[in-house]
Every structure is written in C-alpha cells, then in structure tokens.
Amino acid sequence: MSDATSGTAAAEEAEEAEPVWRSRGTDRRSTRTIRVYTSATLIVATVLAVLLVPPAVQLDQQAIDLSAKLLPPSWEHPFGTDDVGRDLLLRCVHGLRVSLLVGVAAALAATVIGTAVGACAGALGGWVDRGVMRLVDTFSSVPHLLLGIFIIAMFRPGVWPVVISVALTHWLSTARIVRAEILSLRSRPYIDAAVSGGASRWRVTVRHLLPGVLPQAALAAVLMIPHAMWHESALSFLGLGLPTHTASLGTLVQSARGSLLAGQWWPTLFPGLFIIVPTLAIAGLAGAWRERLNPRRRSELML
Fold first, then answer.
1. pLDDT tens digits for 50-75?
2. CA–CA separation, 59 and 71 (whole Å)
3. Sequence-ordered list of residues with C-beta below 8 angstroms from that of 54, at least 6 positions apart, any chain
4. Under a CB-based contact definition with an 8 Å cutoff, are residues 120 and 201 in contact?
C-alpha cells in the first residue's frame, strides 16, 4: 500500500514538474529568438547607415568649418560637430565603414591561416602536431595588442597594415578549434573506411576532414569580426593604426578626449556607440548560431 501511495505521489510530482520544464525551455527559446532578431535588426541598420547616409547627407566629412566647431546635436548636425566643425554623423559612418572593412578582411584572413595550420596539425599528427601547437602556445603567451603593435610598426600607417596585424595575431584560436575538430573526426568510422580503401592522407583531409570543420571555421570567422574591430579601434586610438586624418572610430575617440574634459560629451559618445553596438550585434548573432551548432555549450566570445 505504501509503495502504491509513493508511486502515485511521484507521478503527481512529475506531472507538476513537466510544465515548469517546458516553460523554462520556452523562455530560453524566446530569449534566443529576441536576441537573434534584435542583433539582425542592428546589423541591417548598420549596413544601411554605411550605404545610405553618405549619399543622403550632402556634406564633405573632411570639410573644416571653425565657425561651427563643437556644436551640440541638432537637426542640421544630428550627432553634433567635432573640434574643427566637421559633421560627426558622417565621420562616424565613414569610421564604421573602415572598421567593418578591417574587421571582415582580418577575420577572413585569420580564419584561412588558422584553418590551414589547424588542419595540418590535426591531419598529420606526430611531431608536426606537437611543433605546430608549441608554436601556437608561444604566440598565445604574447598579448595580442603588444604583438600587433610590433607588426604594424614595420609598415606605414594605413588600412591594410592594420588588417595584416590583426590577422597575424588572431589565427591562434581558430587553429586550436580546427585541430580539435579534425582530431575528433579522425576517429569516425567513415574516415577509417576511406583509409582502408586506399585514400591518401591528402585526399582524406580535403574530401572528408575539411568539409567537417567548415561550419566551425565559419563561426570562428564571424565571432572574430567584433574582436578585430575592437583591435583596430585600439590601435587607432593609440595612434598606430590609421593616419590621424582618416575617419576611424578609434581616431575619433582619441581626438575627442580634450572635448570630453571640457564638457562636450557628443564627440566621444557617438563614436563609442558606433564601436559597441555593431560589435555586440554581430557577437549576439554569432552566439545564437553557436548555440544552434552545439546546444550543450553556452555561447562565448572568442577573446
């Protein structure tokens, strides 16, 4: 009798707990959906701003007007003006264009390098794997910013030296991810079948291993774009990235330091928002993609 009573109580508890579990899962899905739609909306707004604002605003973003310097936001200048009278909206949009160019180009280059290095290490194994991973550990022990400063010091200021600097300092995490995925794929039965059938190591790598790691490599590239944009902004803020006359979000923040101390907040606020909002939107969309690829792991930024 006691067993039947306890069984009935357990069943009632299970029935009561089931709606709670379902509601929690629904809440997680709805939260992820809201995050995806919000991130996608912000990314679309960023792209439209980069494409449409310069033609719509008939002003030269380099035009200096000392009579209009440090004007607060208004209908004529929605973001105000900087310390030499240039329109901040146009300057921020052009700076965002440069940052997106650097971020996308550097992320693609770093992903190609990291995928090639990780694939070689994982597919060849042995002393090649050990040597490559020791090289990765050596580069990882040096701070990215310090290594990027050392690389960029060998070139003249410009966009492509910044791309090279960011790419050469951000391929390490991709190499580790690709190597781990290839080591996992090497234990699959279809890989053993391909090797038993006489396929060469090169053919197995190109036809079977690399296609299996492409989703993770693509996700790593998307997650790397915000980090590359932050890195470019940091280099430009330090005066080591782009020339000072070039509209870059980092140079805009750097040139607005004096205005902030004088009480003019807009030359610092709007470039800062143009750095934070698009990068968080890209990171949020990539995080949702990562949760979909591997639901058991929480999304993390590759910093």
1. 888 777 766 666 777 777 788 888 88
2. 16
3. 61, 90, 93, 94
4. no
274 close to 92: Cβ distance less than 8 angstroms: yes
Per-residue pLDDT tens digits for 7-21:
454 445 544 444 444
Q: Phi and psi dihedrals of 87, rounded to 5? A: -70, 125
- Is the CB of residue 292 less than 8 Å from the CB of residue 225? no
Amino acid 10: pLDDT: 47
What whole-number distance in Å separates Cα of residue 217 and Cα of residue 179?
11
Question: What residues form DSSP beta bridges with 87?
Answer: 81
Which residue do the tokens 């580790």 mark?
A: 176
Give every CB contact of residue 148 below 8 A, 6+ residues apart in sequence.
Answer: 165, 166, 168, 169, 231, 235
Side-chain half-sphere CA neighbours of 40 within 13 A:
8
Give 3-state DSSP helix, strand, coil % of the chain, rounded to 5: 75, 0, 25
pTM of the model: 0.77
Annotate 56-118 with DSSP letters as a single string.
HS-S-TT---GGGTTPPS-SSSTT-B-TTS-BHHHHHHHHHHHHHHHHHHHHHHHHHHHHHHH
How far lies 65's CA from each of 68, 91, 299, in Å? 6, 14, 47
pLDDT greater at residue 213 or residue 187: 213
Cross-strand partners of 81: 87
